[in-house]
Amino acid sequence: MLTSLWKRHGLFLAAGALCVLVNGQGLGPLWFTGAALLVLGGLMRWGMWRNQRPPRGQSPVRVEVPVHGRWRALNGPGTKVPSHTHSHAQTYAIDLTRHPVEEPAPSFRWLWPLGRRPHHYPAFGSPVLAPGDGMVVATADRQRDHFCRTSLPGFLYLYLEGFVRSLGRPRHLWGNYVILELGKGVYAGFAHLKRGSLRVAVGDRVTAGQQLADCGNSGNSSEPHLHFQLMSGPDSETARGLPFTWRYRDDGGTEHEGVPEDNVCFTSPGSR
Questions:
Q1: Any idea where the M23ase beta-sheet core domain is (predicted)?
Q2: Residue 170 belongs to what H/E stretch?
């Protein structure tokens, strides 16, 4: 019961902010109400974050790389933990952008263009694969693929947009997604998928390497990429992040077991 209430911390924060913004009477009842709601919402959010910190010393789960081709690791546990935040079970999450040698992605621009359509990026539409055998337990597929936020004004907008999205349900951050049960209390989450690209439905059983959907730019995303994470349950608001390991090959052809560090380009051993 208490957890269900804490999940709605975004409503308290939004209501508190609204009370403060529309208040025109100075330090009056409306202002103090808004301040109290902001404090309460912040405490609820902190409590959720604290409860989602995973225990130390967990053994990483062995999975397969969920993409084919040459990709780059960003915001991953190979560089720091938590890689994102404990919130939404993202302690060991990783972001992947596609970088084929023959098709470079658009570079960051300071002012112009403010954004680009997602199809200009090699990752957009690339297959997203199951990292192991499992069963689909949750999906979402209706959010649009928005323009990329690859300029300084675009990034400023992204941070404001990300805060607003964080006040809502997980789908507002994840965009289109798939959650896959891998067994033994392990669940894999795939976020920012392309709208209309899902090839699976809840209840489907899948095998390792099977295509689940296409990479997109939905949800809280600056450019087309795959957000991947393992967690201890299907609900990202209450689950804890789980560490993982996979085999990958660096640009020099050397195979590794683990998770690539940030900005390292790699391919899965089965990629051509």
A1: 161-232
A2: helix 170-174
